[in-house]
Amino acid sequence: MQRTLSPIAPVARHPFRQALVLSRIEQARTRDDNDVKLFALAFSAFFICFYTFIG
Q1: Can you give the pLDDT at residue 3?
Q2: Which of 18, 46, 36, 26 has the alpha carbon at shortest distance from 54?
Q3: Which of 1, 17, 23, 46 could potentially form a cystine with 12 if both were Cys, beta carbons 3.0 to 4.6 Å apart?
Q4: Which alpha helices (H) appear in 1-55, and where do they start and end?
């Protein structure tokens, strides 16, 4: 019988594996934050350019 090891196991018993799970969660939060910032930047740039051409 073989078990597959996953760094995102629901029960990480070893401290090193717990650190891996936490670091992946933090990275996911950072990526989500970057997506929102990129969307806001692109939206505001489009808004400024569009109204500059009208005016």
Answers
A1: 64
A2: 46
A3: 17
A4: 15-54
Question: What are the distances in angstroms from CA 49 to CA 8, 36, 39, 45, 55?
Answer: 44, 20, 15, 6, 10
Tell me the C-alpha distance between 8 and 23, whole Å: 10
Give the tens place of pLDDT for each residue, 1-55. 566 665 555 666 777 777 666 666 666 666 667 888 899 999 999 999 999 988 7
pTM of the predicted model as reported, rounded to 2 decimal places:
0.42
Coil, helix or strand at residue 43: helix
